[in-house]
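From the shared-data thread, chain only:
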Amino acid sequence: MFHSSKQRQMLFKSEVEIQEIRNKVNQDFKNSHPECAEFFISAEDERLLCRKFERELLRFCNVFDEPPLFRSIKCTAMNFLKRFYLKYSAMEFYPQNVMLLCVYFACKVDEYTIGIDKYVSMLEESLQYETGSFILGNEFLLMEALDYSLTVYNSYRPLDGFLIELRDRLSVESSECLKKLALSFINDAILTDATLLYSPSQIALSALVYSSEQNKIDMGSYLKSLAPDSSTYNKLLGTITKIRQHLQLNYKFQISSSKLKELEAKCTAISKSLESDNDEGSSADEKQGERISKRRKTVDEMETEIS
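Structure, as tokens:
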């Protein structure tokens, strides 16, 4: 259950806290790779790039048709992508590759069976080999970035639960109208940091309230039934208001093609510079050795906890 999950423990207290982490990740990369200074991008530009590929993630998920992807996979992949870039810089790992890695890994986690060959066949032929190699070579890196916490609770299930509770209060037609707009609200929410700040049930309830207002359906008595006292009720309304304000301020996104090309060019230059450095010495082997050492340490810690 969500309330006893690691996902709940990892919720952030504010948007400021999330931004501070992103700023630190950006600065840490710059401190570690001064040789790439002429190509550095800001934390804000990193976020622009990531948001571009968050939208690409949803578009790519819609390519699957035999069978279509489960709704949960989109949320799981998006959660993985956001959390990855709280540990790594977009200058080190280009978001397009990581986005495709997150979707593939989310398919595994949510038990959607697809092999790597069929998965990459949905990409342009020129990208298939490189993308497949990146995915297979970095699955463990992704798990490390996620602290091995792979279960992601989404807002679709609590929304269904609320609608079931409302079944005796609403007509079938009203219930369907509520669900349609509420699902749209949730889909918008996963494109913001709301899922890093609020629980799935809070987002689902906010979606329901938004939909009820748009459909002119009174939800007042139902909301009051969810709170044992006036203090809890006021707190609930406050949280709903904060979530809706967050979406209003953060959902809209725009990046010009010239800006995107500029950021892509800089990230490509950094990538080539890092590859060149690795070719000149043993840094790639050393880095791989460090990762293996971390893996062994993590496994040892897990075994200690179990024993």
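The mean pLDDT is 87.
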